[in-house]
Structure formats: structure tokens, C-alpha cells
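[audit] Reproducing an earlier prediction to check determinism. Same input, same settings, fresh worker. If the C-alpha cells differ from the archived copy the diff job will pick it up downstream; this log only records the rerun itself.
[audit] input (459 residues):
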Amino acid sequence: MNQQPDFVTAVRDDLSDWRQWVARAVVLAHAAAAGLAVVAFTWLSERALGGFSALTAWQPWLPLLWTPALTAAIVWVTQRFAPGAAGSGIPQVMAALSPNMPPENRGWFVSLRLSIAKTLLTASGLLGGLAIGREGPSVQIAAGVMQHAERWLPGRSGVTSQGLLVAGGAAGIAAAFNAPLAGVMFAIEELTRKIEQRNSGLIIAAIVLSGLMAVSVFGNSTYFGVIRVPQLGLDYALPGLLVIISCGLLGGFFSRLLHTSIVGGNDRASRWKRKHPVAFAAGCGVVIAAIGLASSGATFGSGYDYTQRLLEGHTDMPLLYVTLRIVATWLAVWAGVPGGIFAPSLAIGAGIGNDVALLTLLGHEPSTPLIALGMTAFLAAVTQAPITAFIIVMEMVDGHAMVLSLMAAALGASLVSRWISAPLYSALAEAQLQRLLGSAAFGSSVSPPPARSPALPGG
């Protein structure tokens, strides 16, 4: 029979274990630093987006030269100096958490050096108008800062490297979206299937503390503000189902397309990319710039502004907005630049919800609920992390009145997506591990050199 702890003995043992208190102080200090790193990254990304807007306002045609040139430069720098920074960053953290990853080689995927490179390179991509997001990169950035805490921990502290990576990755989501609950769920659903019971409180405290760093700077406001949700009746049943199915199908195909493009194959385009990655990136940049000009700038950047406009009721979107943004995001990812797909996926989902509202509601009912459903459903379909997706959108738009509807949309779209595509981040993480394990360079137990690193699939 289990005995209850003696209060006095338990308190004395806890207070006398100095290693635990030092470990807690180190972890929480690095959690605060991780939150501030994401805050700095957010500020830099916003300045980069503002810089690109100023550039296009000065010379509207300049992206035809600026975007491909900067895309090529980013890919060249990434491949030569920081190959582990390519892609979104979430697969890298998942690969570092894999039991097949030797501890001495985690620096290929997560490190303080890569966090700095990820910050600068992703912001450079936004300065070039690429259709990428900052939320996925925030996961790798925060994880790199948290991983740095390991060298300062006392022996037998009980805090593991895996725990630090989980806390850092989840802290990145919490700080990027100002959504601590989403960060905790992301840690459980995407990064690991469980949190170590011994240090679960410390890990959750680190996630919340990182989120508080963002709140202290940007204020306790939701990502997209508060949406006005009317009383949902039967008029929304069929349109809502159409949004869920459409997002599930499109999200599944989009996820499969991203995986196929990133991992590559024996087709002509993949061979050209492997042989001439910088020229390939420049070509992608030209098409992205042309799409941006054709859409009057709607497909440039992460899509945050247009998503917010839709939620505020401004439904005057460019023709074929969803299709053009899908292509622009796909090309940016395929080019190999560091950048995420969270914000572009939310923008695509919002566009799908708006299109369905225009076709079915005909202006008789507000379109905001369908836009929120589309955001949730498409993000869940692409990531196949339905609980995280619905919590992110719920916290981002303060849509607590739609909790059940958002949950149903996330689960339904994720189910449809699973019929089409394997989970994107898990598949990319596995591809990275296989590529790295198969390279001769992986036999080295030192940190990755800046040049001649094995080419890694992004994501």
C-alpha cells in the first residue's frame, strides 16, 4: 500500500537539494531568454515586412529583381553556413528529439548558433516578400536557446536534454502566438507524446514564462483581435461542412506536395535543384514576385494583414487568392529558404472560408465564423495536429464562443487529410534523420562545420 509523504520530511528534502534549485533557476532563466528571443525575432520580422512594403510602394515592379536576388542569396548563405536552419524548424526539433539521434550530434538541428541564423535568414525572407511565416521558426529558435541551458545545469539535476527541447519548442509557439495553452498542447501532440512526470511542472512553467515575455512586450492581446460570432444556426451547417471538407482535401494535397518537393525525387526539377540550388531558388523567386504583382501584393509576406482584414469583414479579396497563395507558399518552401507555414496556412484557410461564405451565404449572414473554421481546418489538415490547431485559432481570435465548432473543424479536416498525406512534420523529421544518418559526416561527434554540411531537407 502506498504511503502518503511526511510533510516535514518532504519539505526538508526538497529545500536541501541545491541541485534542483539551481536547475530550476537555470531553466527558468533560459525560458525567459527564449521568450525574449522570439520577441526580438517578431520585432525584426515585422520590420522586414514593413521594409518590403516600403520598397514596393517606392517601385512596384522592383520585386521582380529584389525577390529572386534575395531568395538566391538566402539559400546560398543557408546551404554554406547553416544548413540546419532551412525550412520551418519544427522537423529539426523533432529530429533532435528522436531516440536515434546521438546526443553529441544534436547541434546539426538545434543550437544557439542555428537560432541566430534562423532569426536573420527568416527575417531576410520576409524582407524579400516571400510567403513564409515566423511561427514555425520560433520553435527552433526557442529550442536552441533552451538547449543552451544544458551546459549550465549541475550534475544529477534530473533535467534532460529532451525536456529542454520540448520546453523550448513549445515556448516558441506560446510566445509567437501569445497562446500558452497552445504551446503546452503543441509539446504533447507534436513534439512528444508525453511530458516527463518528474519535471512536467518545470517544463510547463518554462513555457508559460516564455509566453509572459511576449505579453510583457506586446501586451495581453490576441493575435487577430476579438471576432464577433453570431448565434450559429442551421444556416451554417452545410457551409461549415463544405469548409471542413474543402480544407481537409486541399490541406492534405498541400501537405503531400510540400513533402514531395522538400524531400525531392528523380524528376527533372528535383535534379536541377540538387545540382543548382541557388539558381533554382532565384527561379522560384521570379515566379513568387510575378504572382505577387498579379495579385496586387496579396500573396507577398506571411498573409497576416489579409487574414485580419477578412476577420474584420473586408471580403474584397483578389481573384484566385487561395490558389495563388498556395503556389507562392509552396515555391518559397521548395526554394529552401528558412521559414514556416503556420501563418500562410491560416491565410489560405481564411480565404477558403471566405470563398465558401460568398458562395453559400450570399451576404445574408456574417462570414466570420466560416473564416475562423477555415483557418482551423486548413492548419489542422496541413499539420495533422488538430488539437493544437483549434487551440491556436481559439486563443488567437478569442473565439471561445466557437470552441465546439472549431474542435469539430480541426478533427474533421485532419481526418480527411490523413487519407491523402502522411503527417508532414514527422515525415520531414524522419527524412532529415535518414539523410543525416546516411552521410559520412554524421560519424563525427563534433558540432557541424559551417561549410560542406550534408544537404538536409527543410520543412
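[audit] rerun output stored. Observation attached for the diff report: Residues 440-454 have pLDDT under 50 and may be disordered.
[audit] end
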